[in-house]
């Protein structure tokens, strides 16, 4: 009898130990945009897919709207293990790598098709591991779209931006881009943009249609110029330490769920590029201006010298490869 009790106890202990080992892996996914955006929707889809396919093994919690961390803090938090996934804009990695600055060069990609071609090609794929030395891994690109410029005055030619204060993301390339038209760029967190515009502490900003719509920038900016002058896309990242701590099978399954969520998010991005622009036009709160070919050319000529300034940091060959994606 005593033997039997001992056997039962050891089985119970073993089961208990197994249960402890099998506690679900926690993934906190932090981002700064609203839920009704390509990134917001992608993160929700990722959570749903993980719930469906990896129930009990992995638990994803999504924190939108800078609830947990702003983009300027999230990568530090990731290296400390306080958050496991994020998808900052490609413009927010310059502290970790110079190569991703390529995505900020003004008028480099003619449209999102060219961006996709470059990202999925060999050079774009190589850039996913450009953060490795800093302890981060790029798991995939996610689209938002081409950027437009909004302001308190109509922007038709570069001199219209002269002396005006523009909020930018933390990127030296974007700083140089606005300095090239004699504007005053200010690096500010996304969470502060609406208030800065509303209080007229700044005159303008650049962003995608979905960000301008979902964060209501159009309600406090009387003019939006359809410039399509640059891209705002994301890199979904995690820390090497967290990623390598996962079992191979689990890592593969999480990556698959993420890939599927990215495909879904990219579909939303393509849709919202058009629909959010239309919602802004319909609101009549902001006038959407288009540029003639001659006006646009003036912006190109003013801003393109920025490429040369960053050519050594980014690499001339990489810039050529990105340009080739336009063909
Ligand atoms: C911004 O700061 O304007 C964007 O990076 C926000 C975002 O994540 O789309």
UniProtKB/TrEMBL annotation:
Transport found in the keyword field: yes
Domain of life: Bacteria
Assigned keywords, A-Z: Signal, Transport
Signal peptide: 1-19
GO BP annotations, alphabetical order: C4-dicarboxylate transport; transmembrane transport
Any one of the GO CC terms: outer membrane-bounded periplasmic space
UniProt record similarity statement: Belongs to the bacterial solute-binding protein 7 family.
Protein's name in the database: TRAP transporter substrate-binding protein
